Amino acid sequence: MAATLLTGCSAFQANPFEIQPTFRDLAYGDHPRQKLDLYLPRDGGQPRPVIVWIHGGRWSGGEKYPAYPAEILTEAGFAVASIGYRLSGEAA
Fold first, then answer.
1. Is residue 21 part of a domain?
2. What is the pTM of this model?
3. Is residue 51 part of a domain?
C-alpha cells in the first residue's frame, strides 16, 4: 500500500536559484538594514569581478535574500554582493 501511495509523489526540490551566501550579514553601515550577503564562486580564492545586486521593492520593501541571479553569476565566475538598505520610511 505504501508503495502505491508514493508512486505519484515526486521528491521535493528546492528552488535552484536559492543558494546560500558564502558570507551573510556583513555590515557596511550603521543602520541594521545596511548589511550585505556575499556569494563567491566555488572554484577558489582568486580575485573576481563583483556584481552588486540591489533587490527590488521601490525602496519601500524587499530583502537582500534570496538573490536569485547569484547562482548563475557565481557559476560564470563573478562574486555577487546582495545588499540590504534603509527603506524610504527609515532613511533620514
1. no
2. 0.73
3. yes
